[in-house]
Amino acid sequence: MPEKPAPSESAPARRSAVRVLLRLWPYVRPVRGRFFTAGAVAIVASCLSLVIPLVLKWLVDGPVADRDPGGVWLGALYLLLLGIAEAALFGLRRWLVARPLSSVEARMREDLYGRLQRLPIAFHDRWASGQLLSRGTTDLMVIRMFLAFPLTFLVVNGVTILAGCALLLAQDLSLGLVLLLPVVPVVVLCSYFERRYGVVARRAQDQVGDLTTVVEESVLGIRIVKGFGRHRSQAEAFRRLAELLRSTELSKARLLATIWALITVLPELAIGAALVLGSVRVADGGLSAGTLVAFLSTALALRWPVDSIGFLLAMSQEAVTATERYCEVLDAEEERDPAAGTRPAGGPSGGLRFEGVSFRFPDAPDGTPPVLDGVDLHVRSGETLALVGATGSGKTTLTALVPRLHEASGGRILLDGEDIALMERERLRSLVSVAFEEPTLFSASVGENVLMGAGAAAGQPELDRALGIAQADGFVGRLPEGAGTQVGEQGLSLSGGQRQRLALARAVVGRPRFLVLDDPLSALDVHTEARVEAALREVLKETTALVVAHRPSTVMLADRVALLSEGRIAAVGTHQELLRSSAEYAWLMSGATAGEGSAETGDAGR
Ligand SMILES: Nc1ncnc2c1ncn2[C@@H]1O[C@H](COP(=O)(O)OP(=O)(O)OP(=O)(O)O)[C@@H](O)[C@H]1O
Ligand SMILES: [Mg+2]
């Protein structure tokens, strides 16, 4: 597997946090009623805690000063009721937001998944799968937690702090000002910290993605890892990344600790100063004891809202970077369908036609020659054409252009005279069926895997016919539950040849007009291969087919053969003609040395 760079490493220019978070609005919008109600409930609950000092003031200056036990009990009852009301309201808030927010997360995840399905192969070539996985899991969790907790409490605590400050100033202006002294340095420090924290948080999230990639690759490639005794080097790679992530997390924690210390210490000092100043003034008689009690308990009630600002900002910053990472995938360019207005089908050039087709991989280094460079080829309507070429000559790449898994960089490809670049993808892909070298099966039953290649109307008869053509009916019948047996990642493992035959069945089940097979029989023994070929001949009669072939036996399926060499079609003809006229072809087919060095075209120079 080629080393895939994590495109996220080049951290994007930092945008305003609010602007990034506004991207979440479309998802929050449907639940905005509950969401804002919950916020309002939390604000009321939090402000209730500010009423407590007022009751205390009344209690100290009234019943306590007057030595009235009945009044003291009444005051205590008020305090109890306030406490209960506060707790009940916070409980209500939690109940209000829990369900809507999990639906927000689910919808965001759905959108991400849908997006991943529609993004072009070139995108998936470029992005490591772990980076995508971590966006769909941890990042979305961070976003949901942000909506549930830090977002609400930033607002709630902000309102509470403002209301508290107003109360403090109203109770005693000079003491209030002493207490508010640290506000300016705290705000400055917070904004400085927020920027630094954002950078580190983003780095940590990217590193989680890299770590996920390593885990995923070594689980998928567990046979290779074990077979080559590579567990130690894999473990080493994992350890390195984990260590990197740990040190990033530690620097996150250090930043958080610093800011937390400042945010806690500065107000604490101010409270101490206010306490001394207030006591002196109570002793002088300039201030009532009740006012001082109320003042200090208001200040203490504000401690949590102030202290929490630090980590609320940190969590918000993480949500900002998680949202950025999420949106990077949503903003990647999708496969686009051409504007309506296609050309009429049919015409003089039926079949599958390549005209001057060239292709180079978007991520190929500068200066490398294109993989395909002016391919001209015509597969006549109803004909089967074999495509032969040295390994690495671009056969798979050429076949992938037909269903537009990659977009040709030059020239055009016509299906029955219609340019595929102007066709809707869905229609194109219903016309063309493919089976790739790597037979991929999904975690589903055998039948479901095969019927994936046909429309919704296809059923048992189509399935039986396709399994018959691929000579898969025998072994499928012997599976524990026949065609209903689960295969793929979560189910029974099949042999390479069995998987290949199911992939072939999937390609032919929909009776496609155009069939593209990339070396479909490579994993079969000669006897099975002969039987598949005999059955396949019947299918090939009905379609226009391009079949990549490495072996003479597969070539025999075809009416004509084309030789791909150095990015273009070097020769076309029947097997016999090419054997006589092309040294490279004869060399590829027989393994015998072909006089001139013309045969060595494969990987060399590419
Ligand atoms: N995703 C990719 N990005 C960049 N280069 C690629 C990519 N896939 C293939 N290539 C390069 O394109 C060239 C053609 O590859 P291709 O898979 O088409 O060969 P092939 O003819 O099918 O070979 P084989 O007979 O071994 O299957 C190779 O040199 C390969 O290194
Ligand atoms: Mg190939």
UniProtKB/TrEMBL annotation:
Protein name per Swiss-Prot or TrEMBL: ABC transporter ATP-binding protein
Protein topology in the membrane: Multi-pass membrane protein
InterPro entries named among the record's database cross-references: AAA+_ATPase, ABC1_TM_dom, ABC1_TM_sf, ABC_transporter-like_ATP-bd, ABC_transporter-like_CS, P-loop_NTPase, Type_1_exporter
SMART domains, alphabetized: AAA
Subcellular location: Cell membrane
Species name: Streptomyces omiyaensis
Domain ABC transporter per the UniProt entry, residue ranges: 352-591
A Pfam family per the record: ABC_membrane
Keywords: ATP-binding, Membrane, Nucleotide-binding, Transmembrane, Transmembrane helix
Predominant subcellular localization, coarse grouping: membrane
Every ABC transmembrane type-1 domain range: 36-318
CDD domains: ABC_6TM_Rv0194_D1_like
Residue spans crossing the bilayer: 35-60, 72-92, 145-169, 175-193, 255-280
GO molecular function: ATP binding
